[in-house]
Amino acid sequence: MLEESRSAPACVARQLTQDTARYTALGQHLRSAPPDGGTLTVARGSSDHAASYLAYLLMARYGRLVTSLPMSLVTLYGAPLRHRHTLVVGISQSGRSPDLVEPFKAFRQGGGTTVALVNAADSPLAEAAEWALPLHAGPELSVAATKSFICALSAAARLAAHWHEDQNLLDTLHALPPVLEQAAALDWSAGIEALAGAERMMVIGRGTGLAVAQEAALKLKETCAIQAEVFSSAEVQHGPMALVDAGYPMLVFAPPGPAQAGLLELARQMRARGAQVLLAAPPDVAERQLTLATSGLHELDPITAIQSFYGLAEAVSRARGRNPDRPPHLRKVTSTL
Length: 337
Fold this sequence. Notes:
Elements: H1 2-6, H2 8-15, H3 20-32, E1 39-42, H4 45-62, E2 66-68, H5 72-75, E3 87-92, H6 98-109, E4 113-118, H7 124-128, E5 131-134, H8 147-163, H9 167-174, H10 176-185, H11 190-196, E6 200-205, H12 210-224, E7 227-232, E8 249-253, H13 260-272, E9 276-281, E10 290-291, H14 301-319
Parallel strand pairs: 1-2, 1-3, 3-4, 4-5, 6-7, 6-8, 8-9, 9-10
């Protein structure tokens, strides 16, 4: 897991040199035949967190509405969904789960534009899609996805940039691999002692950063056996706040952007309640415990945040006497309907 997560910057750099003509052609297609039926994302697990990132990016930066598809609507209920003029984006590492492949076939047959961001270029999902865009993360042996998730985030940003001819986003994305190298080298050891004995905790994010909070919570469950629950900083102030007492662990992702001020204020409030807050923020935030590398464009900073987090998750797993590469009861490919 650690080796694969540290290889992510090189994987992203490789991805950005590949398939340029394909991304350009897809962008031209989406502009000439706009998906007026909206955009759907189709994914599970870590890939669904990448889909959440894509959704926030498309909605916040470009004003396009995006819906996450409950796949059982197609695979179990046979819902008569209208497919025409819809963009359907599937995200997957293996591209083999039937609950991704079957909706894709249905949407393509119904006239939707189907795009697969998939690591396995020869997978059934890639074959079912009209537009297959490989992640180029290479083989991933650890059960916990790391480099494929980071490559899914960069591919999502690349798709958005080509669709909207956003040269600023594209230029900053191409400059991202060295920033990811910096992020991977940051010292997050302050989080090891805080989480080594934790049994339950909250992970907080908001906006484009909510996706990496979702991913972090999943990895803490998966590799560390911590019952980590994810919340938006807006939602945690409702019912979940009742759980917070003295010493309660909280990991707060506060990268730059419109949501940062509220996240920092929440961290202060939770500390005042006695919570053990691990605040991940850029160097200009004095009260941080964990430092975030920044890219110069806040929409891309969640990618650097999760790059740093993976090293912490691996270290916490080992500190708890677990094997982060082989979590119990889990498999690399999960087949559901």
